[in-house]
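note to self — DONT lose this again. spent like an hour looking for the file last time. sequence + predicted structure for the chain T wanted, 241 res
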Amino acid sequence: MAECQFKNIVILTGAGISAESGIATFRDKNGLWENHDVMEVASPDGFRRDPELVYRFYNERRKQLLSKEVTPNPAHEALARLEKEFQGKMTIITQNVDDLHERGGSQNVLHMHGELLKIRCQRTRKVFEEKGTINSQSICECCNLEGTLRPHIVWFGEVPMFMDKIENLLREADLFVSIGTSGQVYPASMFVQMAKLENDCVTIEANLEKTQISWNFDKSLLGKAGDIVPGLVDKILAGEL
């Protein structure tokens, strides 16, 4: 068995990996998310106009995520195994707001679009775990006021989290793998180019079908993440890429 030739692996995951676990993808072809206009439930303006609608929407998403029907799939578990067995540095950057990577066993995960099971105070920006429901009357435990809590989610018009750290990780990466993402959402759509900019980074895409940025990758693997990723992890660890 050959030794793994990589030292710094960066994995980007999107809605496709979570869809196989029963999580609805972000929006359908009509621009709706669970029958809501995304701007009503995923924008600061929507929250200002109708906070109770937004609270209810994320309460339902949280309830779905915590249901028995939603569990990590083989792709999540394979990435956790890669993190555990890989001798170098590995980071998962996810566009997903669920906790399936963590439930699957991964520890080094950056949620660039926030986390569904967290809320934050708009006054102090302190972040809290939340597995239940909140509304306009919920009391914030740090400022003791009503109406200051909001979902810890990056909405349209807001800057994704951890961008400075992500850019540094991409500059250091010698293997970049994109899993289950359409490649249409900025800035994640630029990650493959950023990874290739300063070093000889190997780039691999794993997706159900080719995307608009597939031509940027050295290799495209087509199929379900749960089918593809375990074998890809085996090859990485065996030094067979």
